Amino acid sequence: MITATSIKQTLKAWPSEWEGIGISGHSFYIRYRHGILTLHSSKIPSTDVWDAVDGKWIAQIEVTKENDGIMSTVKMLHHLQPYLKLAKGVSL
């Protein structure tokens, strides 16, 4: 479970993307593309999102079989509930 101390949506169009930092100091990267929502985390503590992009896969969820790539932050958090939560005081 990643507890996010910061999270921001970096792309709202196709694909929807977010990045942030977890309480452990690891960066994470989330992407929704072709109906698939993925969550990656850096292997070591890092503030560089590219360490998460090239890091370990935490989750891959098929949200729809449609060729979709646009998702709200609220919907993303709902789907990733078993893998990602916001730390107290973190705002969207």
Q: Which strands sit side by side, in order, in the main sheet?
A: 5-4-3-2-1-6
Note the overall shape. globular
Oligomer: single chain
SSE order? EEEEHEHE
Radius of gyration: 12 Å
* Helical fraction: 10-25%
Which structural class do you get from the secondary structure elements? mainly beta
Task: State mean pLDDT (0 to 100 scale).
Answer: 94
Give me the number of helical elements: 2
**N-to-C terminal Cα separation, in Å?**
19 Å
Structural domain tally: 1
Number of DSSP E strands: 6
Largest sheet: 6 strands, mixed
Beta-strand level of the residues, as a percent range?
35-45%
**Contiguous runs where pLDDT drops below 50 for at least 5 residues:** none
Structure notes:
By secondary structure, the chain is mainly beta. The chain has one domain (2-81). It is 13% helix and 43% strand. It contains 2 helices and 6 strands. The protein has a 6-stranded mixed sheet. The protein starts with a strand and ends in a 6-residue tail after the last strand.
Quick tags:
single chain, 92 residues, globular, 6-stranded mixed β-sheet, 2 helices
